[in-house]
Every structure is written in structure tokens, then in C-alpha cells.
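During the second year of the project, the team shifted from modelling isolated chains to modelling whole assemblies. The rationale, set out in the original proposal, was that interfaces cannot be judged from single-chain predictions alone. As a representative example for this report, we include one of the complexes processed in the last quarter. Its constituent sequences, exactly as entered into the pipeline, are reproduced here:
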Amino acid sequence: MRLVLDGLAVTLDGRSIVRGADLVVEPGELTGLVGPNGSGKSTLIRAAYRALRPAAGLITVGGDDLVRLPPRESARRIAVVAQENPAELDFTVEDVVLMGRTPHKRPLSRTTAEDLHRCAESLERVDLGHAARRSYATLSGGEKQRVLIARALVQGSRLLLLDEPTTHLDIRHQLDVLHLVRELGITALAALHDLNQATEFCDRIYVMDGGRIVADALTPEVITRVFGVRAVPRTQYAFERLKEDP
Amino acid sequence: MSLETSQVTRAPGVRPSARGRFTILVIVLVVAVVAATWLAVSIGAVHVGLAQCGGIVADHLVPGLVTRTWTPVQEQIVWDYRLPRAVLALLVGAGLAVVGAVLQALVRNPLADPFLLGVSSGASLGAVIVFVLGTSALGGLSLSAAAFAGALVALVLVYVLAQRSGRLTPARLVLAGVALAYLFQAVYSFVLQQAQSGRAAQQVLFWLLGSLGGARWDMLPIPAIVLVAGVAYLLAQHRPLNALAAGEDTATSLGVPVARFRLQLFVLTSLLVGVLVATSGAIAFVGLIVPHAARLLAGADHRRVLPVTALLGAAFLQLVDIAARTVNAPQELALSIVTAVFGVPFFLWLLRRRA
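Output from the structure prediction step:
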């Protein structure tokens, strides 16, 4: 399912955070969104799942105007893995994953055997089949992210938005999460802060700066201009380190 | 793989199957509610045996079903005084507990209680005005009606202060509620201080701390209807409630229209609190501790939490009212005194457990 942002602008408390962003997420691809802190990545992602209302511009998902879709319908098309932590109340892993069925349920409909089956299956896919009845709050950061991915799978949406899914994770779990998204082969847009990870895992990368999309590829010039650092190929980086510190 | 039959080794934080236990839990709680109510009807200054109580109730429901083994006085005491009071205890206990559970999810704070959003202070102000200045002060409104009117005024004021272009955020809701509660308290404290009669002040204090002493059959239908309708609506919304408890953005991403849903919850809980406080005063701690106890027993999923909370709240307040009537007989204790005696230690234990 294709996601298109056309001239998206988002204003928060009178401040313009995203200004005229154009972006396309092609079906089947993992699209990365990188940029310095405060460049508007999270705000853009939140607008793309209706947590924020656009001040201007158009978001279409599968060809339909997002804000005109009923909330349930947009949730059936778009699932989200964000940093928000649903741990205030002591939900079990199973409770959290089953929340993914919310947009498919009428008020009085019960949780069916099929829902439970989907839940168990999704937890198996993120390698947490053993943890269904554990308390979500007691999981590690990496396990929590995997539970949220399982919830997105149960939601059955064909588009996945990830808002800095690897922040606060140690390096191994960061790679686990990105590998998992890759393996699932689902259409996804991920805001990432690690440029190396973005280049390694994404099919296409958009670069944000000051609320605008300033590039649709991560070239050395872009890195220098946007991030103020010099991009060095890995082999050369290792070589230079070796010269400095024999 | 079937979840019911999978063998799970118990690691820390693992719960046993909640599904099978839930049915048993509900049955146990229903039995507890019935037993506590039966006991409440039997106990008092005039002793009426449990069998006689059962007979009196059966005779009223199906006349001529059982042979009369009781005196007309006993019948009058049980049917006209104790039973409506016991039923009111169930309604108020269940209602306050459910409102507490919903508000804890709505503002995402485990320390929320039904009196957080200022509604009960509005109700108290209405009641105090009628107590001290007489029914003519508010155009002939009775005590309950004045309390409910005060609750509605508070509801509207909190909404006006907390909303921002029609949207309610938990933080603003709590701030507006707490601020208004202080304002209402200041006003009714002033009215009380100005009151001529010390007797009125004492009565007001007793009412403010909660009492079921005024229960009559004709005051039960309204709270009963509001409670049943409210709990039915909330049960139907258990999935959006779970999503909202997980966070605003999460709920949005799961297709919950958060702004509209929050407004519905705010109005519903405020109306419930208004109706309940109008009948029984502001009974503290029930709405704070019962939802936590319910979650310890049934997990966090609102489909299980809401019925368990309602039953547990009903049974708890029934026992509290029995204690309030008997501990210091013939004098009655205000219910908040009794709930605090049980509530505060539980609350402190909970705080330590979370820390």
C-alpha cells in the first residue's frame, strides 16, 4: 500500500514543525527518514497516523485522503510502532498484542479463538511465543519493541510506521528490530537516527532538516550539509583510525 | 499452538491463565455480594435472623411463597429500612469503584479517584447550601437534587476550563478539576462557618464523609439505571479503554477517536459521580483502592477489570457499611472513616510495591 505526503505542513502550539514535506513510500519497500534532532521526523510520522492534524497538505494512503477515512479504516491500513510505553497499567504481553484487533472489532464482539491464534502466531514471529502471559512492564526495551511489532502484525495493516524504533535499545537489539522489519517484508516508513543503519537497511532514504525534506538520498554532500559531519567510507575510516592510533 | 494448553514455565511476572480463573472469580464475588447483603439486612439493633430475612424478601417478591415466621415490625425494619440501604450500598460501591477504574485509565494515572475531577466538590457545595440555608435557597431543590445540580455545574466548569478547541487532555483535566475542587471547598467552608447552628454543621460534616442512612426505595431507581447503563456502555467500550490506557497516540493508531471518546468518558463518569454523591455523600477510597485490588485479581484488561471492580466495590462497601453501623453502635460512623481505616494501609502498601 502506497503512502504519499504532498506538501504536508504541521503546526504545534503555533510553531511550524513540518513545512511542506513531500514523500512517497512505495509498496514493499522499507523507507527511512533521517535528520538531526528536532528536524520534524517524529512530527511527520505522527501526522501520518493521525495523532496530529496537518495544517496544510495532503496525506493519501492506498489512494485515499487519510483525514477523510473513518478512524477505524485508517487503523486497518496503518499500524504504528512508536516509543510510547503502554506500561502505566499492568497489561500482559497478550493484552498488548490483542489491542491490535481493536480496529477490527465492533463494541460488543468478543475476542475469538482466531484472534488468540493470530496473537500467538505474531508473538512466535517476533520470537516471543513464550512470553504471552508475562507482564509487559517487566520486559526489556528490545522485547517491548518486538511486542509492539507483534501488535502491528495482529492489526493486519499493510503499512507500518516506525517512530525511532531503535532509540533506547542496545546495539544488538537495534539490529534485531531492523532485521525483523526487513524480514517481514512489509511496506514501512521508519524514522531513524543512525545513518549507518538507515543506509544498511532501507531501500530509500529521505533526509529532513528544519521541517523540510531536503534530499531523497544520503550522499556525502547531504551528510555534510545537514548533519555538519564528514562522511567517510567504512574501510577508509578504519584505515585513518589505524594511522592516528597505531 | 493453543494458548490454553501451552505449558509455560513461571518466570517472574508471569500470570497463570486469566481466562479460566475469571469465571471462578466472578462466581465467588457474586456469592460474596449476596452473602454480605444478606448479613447487612440481618444485623442491627433489632435482630432479625438470616432465615427470617430471606423469608421477608421472598414474601415481598412472591407473596404467599413462605409461611410468616416474623413480626410486622421486623418486616418493616428489613423491607423499609435495611434492604434499601443495603441495595444503595451495592450501587454506590460498584459505581464509585467503576468510575475510579475508568478515570485511572482516562488520565493514565493509577492514583486517580472519582473525586479528582472536582465533581464531588460541586455536589458537596450544593448539599451544604441546602443544609445550612434551607431548601428555599436553591429554589426548593431537595438535598439530592441540589447536590446533583452542584455536580453538573462543576462538570460544565471543569470542561470549559480543561478543553482546548474541544479537546480534553488528561493534564488539563486534572488541573482544572483540582483547582475547582479547592474553590468549591472554600465556598462551602465559608457557608458552613457562617451557619448559625452547630447542629447543622455537624450534620453536614457527617453527610460530606458519606452515609447511606437516608436510603429509601424511591431514591434507588435513578442511581440503579445510571449505573447499569454506564457499566453496559463501558463494557462495550473495553477495547478503546484498553487502548486509551496504553496512551493517546497508541489509541489513535488503533482507530479510537480519542477526543470524542475522552469527552464521552468524562461526561459519563461525572454524571455517575454526581448521582452517587447526591445519594450518599463523598465516600473516599472506594474508587481508589478497589480498581487496584480488581487488577491484582483479574489483570489489566478492562473486559475483566470492569465487572470485577463493580462486584468487588459492591461487596466492599456493603461490609464497610455493616462495620459503620455496628462498631460504635448505636452511633453510626461516617463511611469515609471506615474506608480510610482499610484504604490507607492498602494504599501505602501499593505505593511501596510500585516503588
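Strands of chain A lie at 3-12, 15-25, 30-34, 56-61, 64-65, 78-81, 159-163, 187-191, 204-209, 212-215. Chain A has one domain: 3-87+157-244.
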